[in-house]
Amino acid sequence: MSALTNIWNNYTVEFSTTQKVIIAIVLGMIFLIAIFAIVLVILEIAG
Fold this sequence. Notes:
By secondary structure, the chain is mostly helical. It has one domain (1-47). Helix content is 96%, strand content 0%. The model has no long low-confidence stretch (mean pLDDT 89). The chain crosses the membrane at residues 21-43. Keywords: Membrane, Transmembrane, Transmembrane helix.
């Protein structure tokens, strides 16, 4: 029983870590897109 619990705990930790990485990548992409959009707006205003 404890072996199954250990396997479950390891899987849960790995899964949550993977989720954190995916969330970080998604947030990073959104952040970059937002900066890119702001730069385009500034260039439009300046131009």
